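Appendix B: a complete holo record

For completeness, this appendix reproduces one full record from the ligand-bound portion of the collection. The bound molecule is flavin-adenine dinucleotide. The inputs are the chain sequence and the ligand SMILES; the output is the full three-dimensional arrangement of the complex, encoded as structure tokens. No fields have been trimmed.
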Amino acid sequence: MINTFYKASDVKEILTFLTSHNENTGILAGGTDINRLNSQSSYKSVIDISEAGLQEIKRTESGIEIGACVTFQQALESKFIPSYLGKALRYAGSRTLRNMATIGGNAALQRSDSYLLPVLIAAKARLITTDLSEDGTIIEENVPIREYIEHRNMFQHTLIVRICLNKPERFVASERFCKSIQAPPSIVIGFGADYSEQKKVLNNLRIVIGTAFYGIYRLQKVEEAVAHGVIQTAEELEKAVVGETKAVSDYTGSEAYKKYLAGTAAAHFFIECQTAAGRF
Ligand SMILES: Cc1cc2nc3c(=O)[nH]c(=O)nc-3n(C[C@H](O)[C@H](O)[C@H](O)COP(=O)(O)OP(=O)(O)OC[C@H]3O[C@@H](n4cnc5c(N)ncnc54)[C@H](O)[C@@H]3O)c2cc1C
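The structure of the chain with flavin-adenine dinucleotide bound, as generated:
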């Protein structure tokens, strides 16, 4: 049960609160998970960060930056948000939820059925995190989102302040396979790549899977095989994705079905990406 509640008006107040409280402290952004019935979180104290100046979306020289407390709905209404992110934001089908759920909260939660993580990793998004130095100054760190996911424990109590999308030219897409918009997905897939006309290969390919039990993970063997030209066609890619995807059979579908979904979606995105790059 939460018995200490504090509302911060800026980032320094948040960090001061976090450093002076123990690890059982939650960061209350939209509160859609912390306050949810049967929530897994068991925080004794929380700090409300919804009015701490983290709600700006701005264009930068290299792309866009989204404040951690920007809600899904605010992002959808912004002219700066790329269409691939707009699609993923709509995976949260309830407008009430979109009005509360924040992008930073979604990244921090790291749910296996995450609305946004597969597409953010595919987009090679970066997170700006903050900490307080011993003399009380705010230190910012720029962390690749894949590193944040891979070292989950290390970042458990780290405040995310902004999400950066710095690759405007990158092809990015995602799909969430579920029976209805409100139902849990069988599988979520994110796909992103830079295309090099010169080398005739996809560069920096990221294929990201989100699925029950295995969580969020990349298909690194497939990514490497494409980078080295071992995989060149959509058919080869589909087969390799089916081979590397891990999934369990449950009420959202069998293991084989989930692998099939991942394979066909990746092959489809592969063709779409090459078409976008003028290859066909
Ligand atoms: C009915 C229902 C269905 C849902 N289905 C899904 C789903 O399918 N997929 C999905 O991804 N989510 C789902 N959610 C969870 C949730 O709505 C979203 O993940 C949302 O984006 C979480 O953001 P929030 O601001 O509400 O987080 P909060 O509840 O405020 O916080 C969630 C966690 O993130 C941490 N946190 C929040 N902000 C930050 C920050 N800036 N820096 C560091 N840590 C932070 C908190 O400490 C806490 O542990 C669902 C929720 C409900 C109620």
